[in-house]
Amino acid sequence: MKAVLKGMTNDYFDLEEWEPEDPLDFSLDLLLRIGGSNSSGADNFDLVVCTPKWLARYSDAGMWGRGMLVINHYDADLIRSKVVEYIDACSGEDWMSTASRLSRVFLWEFEGYKQ
């Protein structure tokens, strides 16, 4: 099953207009809506995008890296292309196998869910 990015948002501002005060020192929380190419539905995946400079300021006590994309400077097109590139590499036999691959990097809303 081929997965596609159906939406990328932030709870606080419009990503189309937002730019950080310092493009070399920022952190950005993203909500990714990803679903099958043959479906209108999508699941939520979370991702933090940050720079090495931001990471250095906040990681003195240590920091986990899953659910995180580290880039050298803010570039909205680069962020979107890296997200889509990873999604494109995660096709599986069905949605569960695809979502499982996606959740190796992105934080999936249904990870660990048991029916």
What are its keywords?
26% strand; 115 residues; 24% helix; 5-stranded mixed β-sheet
What would you say this structure looks like, in words?
This protein has 115 residues and is an alpha+beta fold. 24% of the residues lie in helices and 26% in strands. It contains three helices and five strands, in the order βββαβααβ. The chain has helices at residues 52-58, 76-88, 95-102; strands at 3-9, 27-36, 43-50, 68-70, 107-108. Strands 1, 2, 3, 4 and 5 form a five-stranded mixed sheet that branches. Helix 1 links the parallel strand 3 and strand 4. The longest helix is centred in the C-terminal third of the chain and has 13 residues, at 76-88.
Summed up:
By secondary structure, the protein is of the alpha+beta class.
List the uncertain runs: none
Mean pLDDT level: 92
Q: What overall geometry do the principal axes of the alpha carbons give?
A: globular
How many strands, which pairing sense, and closed or not: the largest β-sheet? 5 strands, mixed
SSE-based structural type? alpha+beta
Rg to the nearest angstrom? Answer: 15 Å
What are the secondary-structure elements, in order, as H or E?
EEEHEHHE
- The helix content is 10-25%
Strand content: 25-35%
Report how far apart the termini are. 22 Å
Helical run tally: 3
Number of strands: 5
Question: What's the SSE blueprint?
Answer:
Layout: E1 3-9, E2 27-36, E3 43-50, H1 52-58, E4 68-70, H2 76-88, H3 95-102, E5 107-108
Parallel strand pairs: 3-4
Antiparallel strand pairs: 1-2, 2-3, 3-5
